[in-house]
C-alpha cells in the first residue's frame, strides 16, 4: 500500500504560501539592486541610479543625471539618502538639485583613491551645513 502525503487542506499548522508581486517591498536584510531607481532631490528629479553603481561600493550611489546636466554622473554618499520607496522605485535625497548639480562628477578612474572620496564627502558635508 502506498502512503498519501497530506495536502494543504489537511495540514492545519502550515501557513499558506505567501505570494509576492513586483509591487511587494523587499523584507529586512534583503540585498537590493537600486539600479534604475529614480532619484529625487528635495526640489525635483535628479536622474536615475546608474548601472555603474557597481564601480562604487555600498556607501555611494552613482546617479546619471541624463540631459538635466548634460549626462553628468554624480556620486552621492549613502548619507544623503533620506528615504527609499521600493514600491515606486524612487530614492529621495536630502539635497537640492542645485547642490547636486554643483557636486564633483563621478570619476570611476579615481574612485579607488581615498583623496577623491574625501573630496566628494567634504563637498556633501559642506552642502549639508549650508542648508
Mean pLDDT: 77
Please give the largest β-sheet. Answer: 6 strands, mixed
User: Helical residue percent?
Assistant: 10-25%
Q: Mind telling me the C-alpha Rg?
A: 21 Å
Verbal overview:
The structure is a single chain. The protein is an alpha+beta fold. Helices cover about 15% and strands about 20% of the residues. It has two helices and six strands. It has helices spanning about 95-100, 115-130, and strands at about 40, 45-50, 60-65, 75, 80-85, 90-95. It has a six-stranded mixed β-sheet. β1 (about 40) and β2 form a beta hairpin. The chain is globular. The model is unreliable at about 5-20 (pLDDT under 50).
Key phrases:
single chain, 131 residues, alpha+beta, six-stranded mixed sheet, 2 helices, 6 strands, globular
TL;DR of this structure?
This protein has 131 residues and is α+β, with helices and mostly antiparallel strands.
Task: Describe the secondary-structure layout.
Elements: E1 38-41, E2 44-49, E3 60-64, E4 73-77, E5 81-85, E6 90-93, H1 97-101, H2 114-129
Parallel strand pairs: 1-6
Antiparallel strand pairs: 1-2, 2-3, 3-4, 5-6
